[in-house]
Structure formats: structure tokens, C-alpha cells
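Re: that chain you flagged

S.,

Sorry for the slow reply, it's been a week of failed gels. I finally had a moment to sit down with the sequence you sent. For the record, here it is as I used it:
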Amino acid sequence: MFASASHCKPMKHWLTKGDWLVLIAALLLVPGLYAAYWHGSGQGLEARVWVDGKPWARLDLFHVQHLDVPGVLGVSHLEIGNGQVRFTDSPCQNRQCIHTGWLSEGGDVAACLPNRVSVQIMADDPRFDSINF
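Prediction finished late last night. Pasting the C-alpha cells below so you have them in one place:
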């Protein structure tokens, strides 16, 4: 009915030399591919602000400033400087935009959907958008 435990092979005998080669190659290849393809697009150079789906402003990330952006619910506040941008206040209920924190890599995006305000970091290498994060 059932095979006895003496008929089961130890795990090291289940894998052939070819299996071990494939396993080791995969373990070495995955970190290299991750570093090459799934990192950000590099340090952001500017931020683009969108209001209600329309371009509203282009901002130098290295110029320290506080910006008030009028949205459909009220004013969203952005803080820019040191190559980063973040929402500091917004009239939305859950404040997901604020919890996103600092954005600095090319392709990073934060949005206050109820207020229809978003900010995206632009970089020289637009290989991927934020979907890969």
C-alpha cells in the first residue's frame, strides 16, 4: 500500500549534478538581475506636479521650497529640497499621499487621489516607470 521509509531516498540523492548546477546558477543570477533591472532610474533631477490630470509645475529638486498646490478638495502642500519631494499636508481623509514619504528616485510617484494632485520624479534614464516598484 505505502512505501516504507527505507525506500525513500535522502534529498541529496534526489538532485542530480545538473540540478545542482541549475540551482547554483539561479542563486547567483537572481541578485545580479535584480540589481541591473529593478532598481530605480537613478537620482531624480526634477519633479513634475499634476493637478486633475494636467501638468501644473516642474520643480528643481535641489531648490529648497514649500509649494501650495490647489486641488479639487483644497490645497496640498509639498516640500522640496536635497533632491527629494514629499507631501506634508493634504485635505484628503486617509492621507496616503503623506505616508508615502520622501520621493527621490526617477520614476517615484505619490498622489493624493481624492484631491487629484500627483507628483512624479523625473530622471535621465526613463527605463521603467513606477509600476516596477
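What I noticed first: Residues 17-37 form the longest helix (21 residues).

Talk soon,
D.
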